[in-house]
Every structure is written in C-alpha cells, then in structure tokens.
Design brief:
Layout: H1 10-14, H2 31-34, H3 65-68, E1 75-76, H4 80-84, E2 88-95, E3 105-113, E4 124-129, H5 140-147, H6 150-155, E5 156-161, H7 189-210, H8 219-232, E6 238-243, H9 245-256, E7 261-267, H10 277-298, H11 302-305, H12 311-327, E8 330-332, E9 335-337, H13 342-349, H14 356-370, H15 379-389, H16 398-412, H17 419-429, H18 437-440, E10 466-471, H19 479-488, E11 492-497, H20 504-507, H21 511-523, E12 531-532
Parallel strand pairs: 4-5, 4-6, 6-7, 7-10, 10-11, 11-12
Antiparallel strand pairs: 1-2, 2-3, 3-5, 8-9
Length: 542
C-alpha cells in the first residue's frame, strides 16, 4: 500500500471499531512501575481526582517485576527505511495472560526516536498508536517527529510499537485469504449469504489455530503492555499521542493507570461508549455525506471528469457503477471489483477533502473500466486493490493484519451471531445509504467468535487533562463520536477543525491544529476553552 500518511495502514485505521460490552473498569496503577526512576521536568498535570475506581477488573498487576524491570537492548530496526530516520528498535517481553504472569509470554517490538535536546530539556517519553486496532506503529515516531517543533522534539523520546499479535510483535496468522467483514453485502440474498458465511469461516479459522489464546488480545491487555513498556524504559509517567483507535487505547490506559499519565493527546477520537458495532454503523451516513460533498465538488468540473453536470447526476453515476458491478465486475489492474469490494475502494477515497481531485479521477477511471476501456490504476488505487485482493504472507500481509484486528475487536466485545440481524440492519439502512449501508452493516466475525471477552469493557469517566483534535467531516470517527469522547473525558479541551479528514495532526495541513498539539506537549497547558480552527486552504484541486 502507499505509505503516505493518509494511506498508511489504511485497512487497520479504517477498522478502528469493535463490538462493546457494558461494564465498569478499575484502576491498576502498578506498584512495580511506581518504583521506576523519575521523568525529567517538574510540571505535573495529573488530577488527584483523575479517574473513577475500576472495580470490575479481575486482574491485578502483581508478580510482574521481571517484566517491568527488564533491560531493553536498542539497535537497528528490521525495516531499513526506519533506520534511515534514526529510529531504533528493541524487544519487550510481556505475559500473554496478565492473570498468569508465570505462563506463556509474547515478544513485542517497540521503536524509539530519542529526544533531540539535552537532559535538562528532556521531559520524558511520548508513547503512540496510529490506529486500528491493527495499525503498524513502529513508524509512528518518525511521522510525529516530522510535525513537532524543535522544542517539542527536544523534550520527548517518541515511542512506537506493534501491539501484541501484529507485525513484529508475535504476530497472529489465522490463514485468512481475504477481508471478510470489510466488504459490502450486496443487493441480493446470495451475496449477503456469501459475506455472512465468510465472516463465520474466518472466526472458525482463527479459533482452530489459536483457541483460548485469542481471549488475551484485548485493549485492556494492550494497555497493560503499554505500562510494562513505560516501566521498562525507567519512566514514572508517560505522555500519549493516539489517533483513531489509538485514542481509545489511550483513554483505557488512562482509566486503568491514571497516576502514570502525563500529557494526553487524542486525535480523531471515537465515543468510548459506542466503541464497537454501533460506531462502525455510524460511519455509513458520514461516508454518504462525503460522497455528496464530492458530488458537489465534481459537478462544476464535468468538463474535466465527465461524472455528471449536477451533484445528483454525479451521485447517480456512482450508485449506477456499484449496481453495474454486481452484474459485471469491473476489471482493473488484473483484479475484478464487484458490488462487495467496490465500496471498500470508495470508502478510502472519500477520507480527505484535499483528495477530491484524486477521488474524481479514480471514479472516471472506474467508469471507463466498467465500459470495457483499458485503464491503468493509480498508485493509490493499486494500493487499495492490493489490500483487498493480495493478502498472503508473500504479498501485502493484509490477511495477517486483519487477523490481529479481529483478535482485538473480538477480545474486547461481542457482536450479534445471527446473520438475519445484519440482513435486517442492511435493509433498514439501504434507502438513505445506498452505497455504504450494505458495507457498514455487514456481518461481523465477532458474532461467530468462540472465545468471549474475559473482562468487561472499560468505562471511561474521568477528569484527566487531555487535548482532543477532531475534524467535523471525519468519516471514520465522526464528529458526533468525538463529542462522546469529549463528554467522557471531562478534563479534556476540544479543538475542532472544519474539514473532512481523519488523523489530523499527521495527515492534514492545518497550522492551527499543529500549534495546539505542539503547544500542549511543550507546556502542558490546555486551552482555557474549546475552540474551532480556521482551515488553511480550500481543498486541493490537483
């Protein structure tokens, strides 16, 4: 796939959802971690009334000294491109099951870009997550460093990681040969049944290979891994930058370990109470709106793209394209896009308003291909086709990433296991969501997952200080979802960016949002009130 910020780990970032179960959470501030050496810098931002009690937890952070006090040996990363950025990598050992610390272990790979300043300028560590679950995180430090001011870069060692079961961290591989859940369920019963059966088959394959190990890949256990890394790095506290699913992981960590949190940045946040199938369903209307936005942009440019002279005509072109692909798949780049796979491509093309021209060009290309004309896919389209169709270990590895995504989602919560439930949801959504309704209501493999969650979902409710950045037109974690996070994190301040994008700081040009993040990381001072940034520029037309 393309490695630009907007397409990095595209499948994983888009799959930043899981089916949630209700429940409370409990604080797990670790006695072992508390004995670690202090962080440079004198200012503290933690609230003494930071988080509510976590009475539902069945796991305590005891008997873990050997993990918290392990030595990390830093050296070159396996990826030579990371080494070129100055990033170093190391392995961290964590227990598979924190309730049985003497049992099997996992080896996690973490990355680091050291602070550029002196010991006096250095504040501590900034741990990160790019989204997902299932987003590869070893390259995140270099991406963040590129957006940091020199003074912020001087203050933090930026830490990335591949979370348990992913990439270079004891990866899971269920032998999945494609993405079952992340596809449209089509127009007829046969297509729906095919997608539902594939979801059930993927769940069966993972269970057959890993069995009850799958129950240990939850967000709560990943948060415990984050704290072990903090302790192994010799830090009493950690700052956090998370985007998309990384916001959820960050607030779960903050709820579980409130006294270990320094500065907390949440970029493109979800509503923690909707974390799950409801959040995925909420993306449907947002993506239909993005298509309408594109139609309004493309209609005055019909002379260039020939998609329709009115917004209604452009939308009709897209809807007809999807319908035609049900009868005759679109052949492009050696692949065949049908009504199940085409919405996957459209979903990603609509992420950013600065990509309107690319979206329109790709639609024109697909219309031409559907008419039997020879076309050459763009780099962006080729990356999306690779993600959908080339999933084996010698290709993109999407099948393995998808397995790790499912492991986290299904360890975190349940989903309906009745195919008819999804069919009814699709038909209810279809009239107002003709393109994305069958996509965002498709059968979820967690419904057929044998290993049920071992712990209740973490209830997010605290007054910890946090800076939240949210785009009004986000098609992944919608603005309404972000408001839910803002309410749950009562000490947060919200910076709104009036654009269509996802993952603002790393992937979108907005000087106001960049300044908000850098100022907060440098000083620890939150804005006195929520505010809205101006946009830097009109959407890019090239």
């Amino acid at each position: 796939m393309s490695t630009t910020p907007r397409t990095l780990s595209a499948v994983a970032v888009a799959l930043a959802v899981a089916a949630g179960v209700t429940g409370c959470a409990t604080s797990e501030d670790s006695p072992a971690g508390a004995s670690a050496s202090g962080t440079n810098g004198s200012r503290t931002v933690a609230s003494t009334n930071a988080a509510s009690a976590d009475a539902a937890s069945t796991i305590t952070m005891k008997g873990l000294d050997r993990f918290y006090h392990q030595r990390l040996d830093w050296g070159p990363c396996k990826d030579p491109d990371l080494t070129k950025t100055g990033t170093q990598c190391a392995s961290v050992t964590v227990p598979l099951d924190y309730a049985a610390p003497k049992g099997p272990t996992l080896s996690l790979t973490v990355s680091r870009l050291k602070a550029t300043g002196t010991d006096r300028e250095r504040r501590g560590i900034l741990q990160t997550n790019p989204g997902g679950p299932g987003g590869h995180g070893l390259g995140m430090p270099a991406q963040l460093r590129a957006k940091m001011t020199p003074r912020v870069a001087a203050a933090y060692d930026v830490i990335g990681m591949d979370t348990r079961g992913l990439g270079e961290s004891s990866p899971l591989d269920c032998g999945l040969d494609g993405i079952s859940w992340f596809r449209g369920a089509g127009f007829d019963r046969a297509s729906f049944d095919r997608v539902a059966q594939k979801s059930a088959d993927d769940a069966r394959k993972c269970d057959a290979k890993y069995g009850d190990r799958l129950a240990h890949y939850s967000t709560r256990n990943i948060a415990r891994d984050v704290d072990v890394i903090r302790g192994a790095l010799g830090e009493r506290r950690t700052s956090w930058f998370g985007q998309s699913y990384g916001t959820y992981l960050g607030v779960v960590y903050a709820q579980m370990f409130p006294r270990k949190v320094d500065r907390l940045v949440l970029d493109s946040a979800m509503n923690p109470r909707d974390y799950g199938l409801r959040m995925f369903q909420a993306m449907g209307p947002a993506n239909e709106k993005a298509l309408d936005d594109l139609a309004r942009w493309a209609a005055p440019r019909d002379g260039e793209y020939h998609l329709g002279k009115t917004p209604a005509a452009v939308r009709a072109t897209v809807e007809n394209l999807v319908r035609r692909s049900a009868n005759r798949p679109i052949e492009v780049g050696g692949d065949r896009l049908d009504h199940e796979s085409l919405p996957f491509v459209l979903y990603f093309l609509g992420t950013d308003d600065v990509d309107n021209a690319e979206y329109a060009r790709t639609l024109r290309l697909l219309v031409d291909a559907a008419a039997g004309r020879p076309v050459e896919p763009s780099q962006r389209l080729k990356g999306l086709l690779d993600a959908m169709f080339r999933t084996g270990p010698q290709e993109t590895g999407t099948g393995r990433d998808y397995a790790s995504t499912l492991a986290v989602l299904c360890a975190d919560g349940t989903a309906p296991g009745d195919a008819e439930w999804y069919r009814k949801a699709i038909e209810k959504a279809r009239p107002k969501q003709p393109v994305f309704g069958p996509f965002h209501n498709a059968p979820m493999p967690c419904g057929w997952w044998k290993q049920k969650p071992r712990e209740q979902r973490t209830e997010i409710d605290n007054a910890l200080p946090a800076l939240q950045i949210q785009a009004t037109g986000d098609t992944r974690t919608t603005y309404e979802q972000g408001l839910g996070m803002h309410r749950a994190m009562r000490g947060s301040k919200l910076v709104t960016v009036p654009v269509r994008t996802h993952a603002v700081f790393v992937g979108y040009p907005n000087a106001c949002a960049d300044k908000a993040v850098n100022d907060y990381l440098l000083t620890g001072e939150l804005p006195t009130e929520d505010y809205t940034c101006p946009r830097d520029q009109a959407p890019n037309h090239s």
